[in-house]
Amino acid sequence: MQEQVFTVALSKIIKDFKLEEVYTPNRDILIETVDVNRPGLQIVGFFDYFDPKRLQIMGMVEHTYLEGLTNEEKSQKLNDFFGRGIPAVIVTRGIEPSVEFMESAKKYEVNLLRTQLSTSSFMSALIAFLNVELAPRITRHGVLVEVYGEGVLILGESGVGKSETAVELMKRGHRLVADDAVEIKRVSSKALVGSAPEVIRHFIEMRGIGIVDVKKIFGIGAVKDTEKIDLVIQLEIWQKDKQYDRLGLTDTYTNILGIDVPCLTIPVRPGRNLAVIFEIAAMNNRQRRMGYNAAEALNNRLMGMMNEEN
């Protein structure tokens, strides 16, 4: 199965980074790669392994080299570079493009942008931005909440109590990220970030009541646009004959987009305070990530007592 390719419009990059539009014949061109390029080798004529889909960033080094050439040499090298079908060139440090630079950009209708930032600072920020915008993603049916700074993804069958639990958590000071549909992006090799689709953001559905605007009822402090997913909790109706983990000595994970996320299965039955359980689960998960496991500590204590008796 072919992997889906995601894109981001150049116009969004211009808006988010407040780039100056020196020449933009096609500002809505789509960018589909997180990699960017400083064309130092290309402007001296080396185009092996050159990827024309990348955004091109030119700083003081490239500018200084070009200024040392004759006008004819400069035009020849810039025409060779701009003629490769590149989407855009972004000039850093507020450098003023030369006449030959502008002529080549207009000749091949290549977008020319400018920023006042240094080359290194701008490149690192742009790569981080593209990693998020072009990240692999899936949509899962569930609820995403922030509990004590931990992103908790709640999964389970319809009607099991996911939304009701989220509302109780908001009443206790925690925050809703997404209800019903959670868009999950793999922003790095170790991190997943969840958000809500724009059309249903900050709304929650409750059976018997209908759609509730969380931001209007609970206030702006009860919602959040995105959150890293640190823990997955699977809610299920209590099964009498099923054995549930009571110690926590064995770590369980669920794989989302190739990343293993700690996972708990919480049985639901009348009388259980799920909001309190979620708070404890979130704090316990943070402790484990910081290197302390209560189940292991208890087990070590018991083993030590047994050894002393022997």
What would you say this structure looks like, in words?
By secondary structure, the chain is an alpha/beta fold. It has helices at residues 10-17, 60-67, 71-82, 99-107, 119-133, 162-171, 214-218, 274-289, 294-309; strands at 8-9, 20-23, 30-31, 36-37, 55-58, 88-91, 111-114, 137-147, 150-155, 175-186, 192-195, 203-206, 210-213, 226-228, 231-237, 253-256, 259-268. The longest helix is centred in the C-terminal third of the chain and has 16 residues, at 274-289. It is elongated. The mean pLDDT is 91.
Brief digest:
The protein is of the alpha/beta class.
The largest sheet, given as strand count, sense and whether it forms a barrel, is: 8 strands, mixed
- Please report the number of helical segments: 9
Q: Span from first to last CA? A: 60 Å
> Order of helices and strands, N to C?
EHEEEEHHEHEHEEHEEEEHEEEEHH
Helix coverage percent: 25-40%
Bin the strand percentage. 25-35%
What structural category characterises the helix and strand content? Answer: alpha/beta
- Return the average pLDDT rounded to an integer: 91
Shape: elongated
Low-pLDDT ranges? none
- The count of β-strands is 17
Rg result: 27 Å
Strand order of the largest sheet: 14-11-10-8-9-15-17-16
